[in-house]
Task: inverse folding
């Protein structure tokens, strides 16, 4: 019996040593997580997103973002390194372009070219024939490791996010794996970049952000930036010299932000917040220990469909939710020609659509 307890004592000691000393890639920093309000108030639970219809994406998955082209067709980024093209209703889906990376955010510019934030390759542009060209793979002497979302201003300037300068999407095992590492570390290393098509130069527009994700240029010229790591959305002045908090303490991890025809914005919440990680906000050593646990016990997104619409001041106008997560890991939404709402996802094998919203 004594030898039995002695063996267990050794096992426990080995486990403790492992949780304390085993090397992991993150070096977490303390921060102050706001108390999670949960799905209450303006975010009260509903099931308005549970009746989605679906559009085929030719056997691909991960329609992270979608844009409507000058031709009225949908252009859809996928995990397969391809930009798909299909009608807003009916018709077939075909491959418009192959980026040979991981396209995330997509947005058309004034010339009709498609700008792509590719997590593996940087900022790309795709011409009308589907030819792909790299515009920027570094800024301020640093490589762009996680180009995430993109939008184009009226003057042609291209704004895009580099979500993490610590954990590259390609080298960290993919976009989701890299995002988890960055959010656990919480070291404020993300940045917003600006590409000038006239000079072909890329500069740092804003930095010191915790996983800056979605980006949209408002009608007022302000640059709206989703900071996933703080559950917030900021508005930056067009010259980058000031910012204001538009909305904070969201009940989930915000992802993309897209402007709507009426001047409002659609935002996707990819997952509810993780209460354990929020409670460990000021305990960086414990967050590091969490990353030594088996993969099944580490932080991971929860399937819960959620998109919401807000005005330019951050007032929430409506929320559409699917608590069952039938269509999960929702990244955002855009409004179609007939008022339909196209809903994108980090992982799904189809593109969601809500018809007849007008």
Result:
């Amino acid at each position: 019996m004594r030898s039995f307890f002695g063996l267990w004592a050794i096992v426990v000691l080995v486990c403790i040593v492992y949780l304390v000393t085993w090397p992991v890639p993150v070096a977490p920093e303390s921060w102050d997580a706001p108390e999670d309000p949960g799905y209450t108030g303006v975010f009260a639970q509903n099931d308005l997103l549970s009746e989605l219809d679906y559009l085929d994406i030719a056997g691909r998955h991960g329609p992270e973002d979608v844009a409507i082209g000058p031709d009225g067709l949908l252009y859809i980024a996928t995990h397969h390194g391809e930009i798909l093209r299909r009608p807003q209703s009916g018709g077939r889906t075909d491959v418009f372009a192959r980026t040979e990376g991981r396209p995330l955010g997509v947005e058309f510019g004034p010339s009709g070219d498609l700008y792509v934030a590719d997590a593996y390759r940087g900022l790309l542009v795709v011409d009308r024939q589907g030819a792909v060209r790299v515009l920027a793979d570094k800024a301020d002497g640093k490589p762009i490791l996680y180009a995430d979302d993109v939008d184009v201003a009226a003057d042609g300037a291209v704004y895009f996010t580099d979500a993490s300068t610590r954990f590259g999407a390609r080298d960290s095992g993919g976009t989701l794996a890299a995002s988890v590492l960055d959010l656990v570390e919480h070291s404020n290393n993300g940045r917003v970049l600006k590409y000038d098509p006239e000079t072909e130069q890329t500069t740092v527009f804003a930095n010191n952000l915790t996983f800056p994700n979605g980006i949209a240029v408002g009608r007022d010229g302000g640059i709206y930036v989703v900071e996933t790591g703080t559950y917030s959305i900021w508005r930056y002045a067009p010259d980058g010299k000031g910012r204001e908090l538009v909305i904070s303490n969201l009940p989930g991890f915000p992802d993309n932000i897209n402007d709507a025809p009426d001047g409002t914005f659609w935002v996707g919440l990819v997952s509810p917040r993780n209460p354990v990680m929020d409670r460990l906000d000021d305990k960086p050593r414990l967050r590091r220990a969490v990353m030594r646990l088996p993969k099944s016990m580490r932080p991971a997104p929860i399937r819960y469909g959620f998109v919401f619409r807000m005005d330019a001041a951050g007032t929430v106008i409506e929320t559409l939710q699917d608590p069952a997560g039938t269509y999960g890991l929702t990244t955002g939404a855009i409004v179609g020609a007939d008022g339909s709402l196209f809903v994108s996802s980090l992982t799904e094998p189809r593109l969601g659509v809500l018809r007849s919203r007008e």
